[in-house]
Amino acid sequence: MENRKLLEVKDLVVHFDTFQGAVQAVRGVSWYLKEKETVAIVGESGCGKTVSIQTVIGLNPRKNGSVRGGEVLFEGKDLLALTQKEMREYQGNQLSIIFQDPFTFLNPTMTVGEQIMEPYLLHSRASRQEARARALEILRLISLPNPEETMKRYPHQLSGGMRQRVMVAMALICDPKILFADEPTTALDVTIQAQIMELMNGLKEKLNTSIVLITHDMGVVANMAERIYVMYAGKIVEHGDAETVFHHPKHPYTWGLLGSVPRLDERIQSELYSIPGTPPDLIAPPKGCAFAARCRYAKQICRKCEPPRIGFEEPEHYAYCWLNHPECIRRNGVTVREEE
Amino acid sequence: MANQVPLLELKHVKTSFKVPQGVLKAVNGVSLTIYKGETVGLVGESGCGKSTLGKTILRLYRPDEGQVLYEGRDIWSYRGREKKQYTRKVQMIFQDPYACLDPLSVVSDIVAEGLRIHRMYEGQALEDRVTELLQMVGLGREHASRFPHEFSGGQRQRIGIARALSLEPELIVCDEPISALDVSIQAQVVNLLKKLQKEMGLSYLFITHDLSMVRQISNRIAVMYLGSLVEIADSEDIYLKHYHPYTKALLSAIPIADPAVERSRRRILLGGDVPSPVNLPKGCSFCGRCPDACDQCRREAPQLREIEPGHFVACHLAGAKKTVQK
Fold first, then answer.
1. A5-94+174-263+275-335 has which fold?
2. B217 vs B235: CA distance, rounded Å
3. What distance in Å separates residue B281's CA from the closest CA in chain A?
4. Which 3 state secondary structure label does DSSP give A319?
5. Which CATH number goes with the domain that contains B169?
6. B224-250, pLDDT tens digit by residue?
7. Which residues of chain A lie closer than 8 angstroms to B236, CB-CB?
């Protein structure tokens, strides 16, 4: 794939001021998205994945200076340097977002049709007739049953899956270049999840939209993503194309994430693998590797120095972990725990 | 399963609610047995009646028809003290760890509430018991004086588990205890529940929509659709042998965490949503979404049949030779 980079995030740092101190939600994250590509950002809740994409499309308040550094280049333009008014030109237009919860994002007092038309009316200066026609076109595209009837309904009259489709329609009506999907299927049933995944995979072909997928469900990632960024405690810990990350993961956190997902096609285990402990407090992130406290392979150096970026054979596959350092002690080719 | 003692038996239980549009049959004739020390997984989409079934078992809803037998006695025949005893023996773990804990009580009060109501411990013994319970679920004494908002989702779920365990129950109805949690925490909670079961000989009814996780904890799995059970099988079996088209669709909808497998898989996509359980149509409740539905399916509702030992399916076409008339 020789497509050019559509979006590039460089060293993004986002802090939030609280009474206890600044929460370092995103601590220097770099990633990019090419045209017609689906990239997944994977991690647990609180790892900063949502914050980083909300910052990209300008949904974080700027007043308290939450963005502490970095660049977000969209087609060569730094989005962070734009004013809020300039940013509005992009929001819902070239950059649109699908939120997680299909029960709270729709306005309960407006019909679904109005809400789908709204971004189009704002951005394209089209007449209401044109907007209606466009909305119907989109609803047909995402195969919502009888779109004309649905347009007249209110959100409470729709099921969760239908609402999520309405959200997708709202996000797509302006023909966005990038669709950010923040846990688009987490709140849905598996059968509806399968429908939405199919829908989003199809859209890439039909509309040439690139997708940034945020999720903690490795199954959804396996189904949709071409490249994967694994995020932990505000940092990216591993990156690679989907096959590499799933089949040759190099970071213990990725091992843990993959291991704790029971697979339907595997036998029943007596005990599920789980990552012990909980993610660190980001008000005072630990020195060294943030994962060290939960990592069974942690060495002294992990607690003292931050691991460097180490690349592997596959192009662009890299991880931040001392275990992969060439000077790390190995026995029979396997990294072993250092006696302390 | 032959020599096992049934703990809870549901016999043709029907629970319905009156709504303006008619009668909502949330649970529509369910028969299920839970044996001592066993985990039964109850799987289905939202709105299929699985939580209503759980609450019917807890004696929170009274069934319109059918019986809920606990150790052979109808739970609605209880009088006086027996009612209170029953609320001790059967406990529930709720889905939303953020909503099920009183935000104004500290953890020790939340866990001790049931113990106080049932006068099981007093004074220092009560405090010790609370500490013991917290340790059992992997929390410490220092957590006892904190408020729920100071905990993460996984920790709150542990508090919910400690509260359910406090009364030394025999059966715990777990209503989607893990769906609100992160994957790595889900595994922790499932392992904890398994460990407690081994130590205390608990039985679980594990309600969820996540077939891949429920398979790891359950002995048997019951698949529910629109108020009725459509398939019951051993959890080892169900991935390899499943007969009901709904079970097939459910299994194929679950993504497998491997891109190579995902690419080569063929998915059975179910059209549409679960139909409304108000004024259910005649015949099989699944026939509107079923790819193989025939005339018989639209006419009469299928009953659960034993297709193989221990494997029950409610489908006219299951096991039959392909004599499908469209």
1. Rossmann fold (3.40.50)
2. 9
3. 19
4. strand
5. 3.40.50.300
6. 998 999 999 998 888 888 899 999 888
7. 267-268
